[in-house]
Specification:
Layout lengths: L11 E2 L28 E12 L5 E15 L3 E14 L4 E12 L5 E10 L2 E2 L3 E8 L2 E8 L3 E6 L5 H13 L4 E6 L10 E7 L26 E10 L13 E8 L4 E7 L3 E12 L7
Antiparallel strand pairs: 2-3, 2-16, 3-4, 4-5, 5-6, 6-7, 6-8, 8-9, 9-10, 11-12, 12-13, 13-14, 14-15, 15-16
Length: 290
């Protein structure tokens, strides 16, 4: 992002951890995870730490946590609750504390998306973002309540966070290694659209030994599932490329299970890189569709 201390939009984790950090976790589906395991309702806790610092940003240390809750079904839609608290220390002894919270709901068809995002930097509140996006025909209509009342349209090819993950899993199942999507998640001032490039690695079978096991790889419910190493790079759609190339605003790498759960997060902000290790993982009860 423009400032070294700024955290990325919700996903993600997004993946986004959106929805990229687990069961929406990343994702949504028309009828589940593309002929595979249904998305898993769960809670995931990731421990954040500094992997490396580079460029002009002198980051001595970083720590924090991501708490992610995902629930829902194909009949009632998917709800994601996300909170990321991060503390970054610079070489001059300055400490920046950021607190990002978001809640969102996306229907299983990827046609409707509601979101609310609140962020705080060093006890200073920023303008919250609150709105709803509806897909109709060949366009998407976004109605913002905050930071200011506004209505605008997006290209209908744009996807929401949960749909983004569904498509990544679908592409991985088909053996594809690259996927390009335009994604809208309501981040920044609620008007930003990102172009994304996803690189998908070879599948990892559930019985393969793991160098650093975590609650996902040791869970009986997860041991039989395939996962893929994934890297998603986010580009500012409105920024002009220099010399024919454009540097991503940030990138997220993770291992994505076929049920939407994510592990081994790596958040690359260009000037520094943060690791997100899955510390706690709990499966939640899910209501079956009637």
């Amino acid at each position: 992002m423009a400032c070294w201390f700024r955290m990325p939009p919700t996903r993600s984790l997004l993946l986004t951890v959106a929805a990229i950090a687990g069961g929406s976790g990343f994702a949504a589906g028309h009828a589940g995870a593309a002929a595979g395991a249904a998305f898993l309702a769960h809670q995931a806790l990731y421990d954040l730490s500094l992997m490396k610092s580079r460029g002009s940003a002198s980051i001595d240390s970083a720590r924090g946590r991501i708490l992610y809750n995902f629930s829902g079904s194909t009949c009632e839609g998917y709800t994601s609750e996300f909170r990321q608290v991060s503390e970054l220390s610079s070489g001059e002894g300055k400490v920046t504390l950021s607190d990002l919270r978001s809640t969102s709901w996306e229907d299983a068809e990827g046609k409707s998306y509601r979101f609310k995002i609140d962020s705080r930097m060093n006890d200073t509140d920023s303008s919250p973002v609150d709105g709803v996006a509806e897909r109709t025909g060949d366009h998407i209509t976004v109605k913002l309540k905050e930071p200011e009342a506004k209505t605008f349209t997006l290209d209908g090819a744009t996807v929401f966070p949960t749909e983004q993950i569904r498509r990544i899993i679908e592409a991985a199942r088909e053996g594809k290694s690259l996927l390009e999507l335009s994604v809208y998640d309501g981040s920044d001032n609620g008007e930003k659209v990102y172009n994304t490039l996803t690189v998908i690695g070879q599948p990892i079978s559930g019985d393969r030994a793991v160098a650093a096991p975590d609650p996902a790889t040791t869970s009986d419910q997860m041991k039989s599932l395939t996962r893929w190493p994934v890297t998603v790079s986010y580009y500012d759609r409105d920024a002009k490329a220099k010399d024919g190339e454009q540097t991503p605003v940030y990138a997220m790498s993770f291992e994505l299970f076929e049920n939407g759960v994510s592990r081994a997060l790596v958040l690359d902000y260009n000037d520094f890189v943060i690791s997100g290790l899955l510390e706690k993982f709990d499966v939640k009860d899910a209501k079956p569709c009637k």
